[in-house]
Amino acid sequence: MRAIEKIELLEKIAQELQLRMTFSEIDIFFDAHGVKYAGIVPSANSKRIYAKEVLAKEKSEDLILKIAEELDIPHNYSTKSPREATFWKPGFFRLFLTHLASFKVQTSHLQSVLKRYAISAFVAHEDIEPSREWQQEIEAGLSTMDALAAILMDGFRESNWCDQEIGVAVGRDVLIIPIRKGMDPYGFIGKYQGIQGVNKTVGEVAEQVFITIVKSPKTRSKMLLALCNAIGQSTDIDEALDKVAILKSVDAVPEDNLEKLKDRVKDNSVLSESENFLASFNGMLAKFGVNKLVLVDAKAEDEWDDDIPF
Asked: Boundaries of each TIR domain copy (predicted)?
């Protein structure tokens, strides 16, 4: 809920309480809902102003919506928590891919390649009459995505499902990445130039998707964190080396992210015991001006300690 929308809803609630209740009854009502009002002195002798100023300090939007519903005040917001999405890879960046069913094979290939960049992509296959269960999966994906990529091609605009998925992304104000496959962005996404997908390989498109995500202020922080997480928990040297190279290609990485990553690498025996990985990892750290990771050999340290005169 945006700030202006919250102010407008609080005004409606306050007006309704003013009409229905006395000051003491408003306090009883607030007590019933766990709303804290002790010590709050209204700026004017008005039940409406008092109720509004008390509720303005309430941080839980769900509680405000619950109060509005009890008072039969209409609103366009949902108090339901989004359905838990189990298809995202833990720790990865969450990208919703919307596309036509006729392009599902290529989209699945893109989904696979995006894993290289620590991007977990949800492929939404278009279906004229999707099952209720499939609709719930799509809704869960839309509710929990970090960004949406739309593969624009002939027939996309006529698809109600693809259009609705973009509408959700616009409503949630998440990053939208148009991938132009013979069709230019339109409507609410017309302001985005998008990525050219014609005569490109899946790998080239995936790289451009990553670059777009890591450059956007909306998603940069989550993308870098996901990449660092993927490196730190990796058990495959080649995959870890590849992601280190990707991280090194970025213009800048917060020092805090890199220091935490150093600790995770230190605790990861697969990575910390690989000289090849450590050399590449320290090279990446050097680029960003962070001290290299130095591992102490416990055995060597014990032997050296034995030589110290007592």
From this structure: 88-213
* Upper half-sphere CA count for residue 288 (Cβ side, 13 Å): 21
- Of residues 305 and 178, which shows the higher confidence score? 178
Q: What does R_g of the chain's alpha carbons equal in angstroms?
A: 26
Type of residue found at 54: V
Q: How far is CA 294 from its chain centroid? A: 33
147: helix, strand or coil: strand
Query: CA–CA separation, 7 vs 12, rounded Å?
Result: 9
- Comparing CA positions, the residue from 218, 190, 251 lying closest to residue 94 is 218
CA nearest to 99, candidates 111, 83, 116, 90 = 111
Entry field: residues in the chain: 310
With 0-12 / 13-18 / 19 or more C-beta atoms within 10 angstroms meaning exposed / middle / buried, residue 176 is: buried
Nearest Cα neighbor of 288 from 230, 218, 224, 211 is 224
Q: What tokens does 55 get?
A: 């509720």
pLDDT tens string 271-307? 999 999 999 999 999 999 999 999 876 444 455 556 6
Task: Round to whole Å and give the CA distance between 42 and 302.
Answer: 69
Alpha carbon 122 to chain centroid, angstroms: 13
109-135, pLDDT tens digit by residue? 999 999 999 999 998 654 334 555 677
Task: Report d(CA 97, CA 88) in Å as an integer.
Answer: 12
Regarding beta strands 119-124 and 175-180, do their DSSP bridges make them parallel or antiparallel, or are they unpaired?
A: unpaired
Cα 133 to chain centroid, rounded? 23
Could you give the CA distance from residue 238 to residue 247 in angstroms, rounded to a whole number?
A: 14
Structural domain 93-215, CATH architecture: 3-Layer(aba) Sandwich (3.40)
